[in-house]
Structure formats: C-alpha cells, structure tokens
Amino acid sequence: MTKANAHGQSTDEEDKAAYEEFRTLVNMTAHQLDKWLATEESRAVGQKDGDAESVGHKSGRRIIELLGAKKSDLQPDDYAHMRKVAGYVKRHLAQRPHGDIEHTNWRYSLMNWGHDPLK
C-alpha cells in the first residue's frame, strides 16, 4: 500500500518506485500493445463495468500513453495508474493456470494490461 504525505499525495521516492515497477512488469512495447488491443481476442476478455470495453482494455490504451510519455510530464494520476497496473499484473501472475497458456483468457487479460507472460 502506498503511503501518502500529509496532502494525500505520494512522495517522489514512491513515484520513482512505481515507475520502475511499471516499466519492469509492462514487458510489451507501445506498438505491440496497440496491435494487440486491435484484436478480437483482446476485446473478448476482461470485466466490463456496464461498458462495451473491458477495464483491462481501457487500461491498455492508457498504458500506451504512459509508455510514450516523458517521465518529466507524468502527473500524480499517471503514477496512480502505474500502481494499478503493477498490482493487477502481480495478482494475475499469481493465478497462473496449469498447462499451456498461449491461447488462454488468462494470458489475453494480462496482455491487455501490457504484460505478455510468454516473453
């Protein structure tokens, strides 16, 4: 859990750690992720909160923006999304199914969040 300062914002040190963890866990390039998000498999997986687009698919579009952003331009909500992505990827990796994962919804969901477990 990220601690906030007295103003409810994370510290520079915490933002740096969130950035590094995000960059480690997101192992797809912006181009690879953009290409993946255009597939039927990508659109078919994930939780849809009353919307046609899943939470993970929306996150993937935001991840592409973050991958293309200059570190100096990142805002507090960008670091918050990086933390969300890292948390999701770590939780999902802990639920790895047995057997071949290449064509599984588990892998496809992770890929929506920028992580391909086969890399």
Automatic annotation (TrEMBL):
Pfam families: DUF3140 (PF11338). It comes from the Bacteria. One of its GO terms (molecular function) is DNA binding. Keywords: DNA-binding. PANTHER family: DNA-BINDING PROTEIN, POSSIBLE DNA-BINDING PROTEIN. This is DNA-binding protein. The lineage of its organism: Bacteria, Pseudomonadati, Pseudomonadota, Betaproteobacteria, Burkholderiales.
